[in-house]
Design brief:
168 residues, 7 helices, 68% helix, elongated
Length: 168
Amino acid sequence: MFDESRPLVRGFAGRARIDAYARSLREAPVLLWSVRALLAAAFVVHVVLALQLAARKRAARPTGYRVRTRDRWAARTMLWTGAAIGVFVAVHLANLTWGLLHPRFEPLAVYDNVVTLFHASPWSAFYVVAVVALGAHIAHGLWSAPTSLGLVPERGTPRLRRLARGAA
């Protein structure tokens, strides 16, 4: 379908390698479903803890601050970026695992499915927005978790913020 002599992105191993990887996952269903179950459980626990944290935050301060401090965009939008990531996961699975939204889905043809999907500008834009939301969510989570756990001073440190952003 696509010319493999010219790689689309430097560093990708190509059609044969990624399609072989997809086939190997299907040949190990116990491993595949164990990992899927672990990821689903981690996702549910993450969502439940986030909702509990949001409820505790609202209960601790039912009215907003009169003067907004220098809080960051990522901190103010954690619930929204989390929800966006949830939508992204559902759409990503519908596109590239089940083929429900994909324009020309072919089972186990990962390379062609990804290339076909990203040739459509709306899907490319959707994935870019999702990756920005994911980056902001992870950066703030990595920065705030040590503070929330009492491992670093309140408000963290500039070095911790740089490390969190770099890791995200």
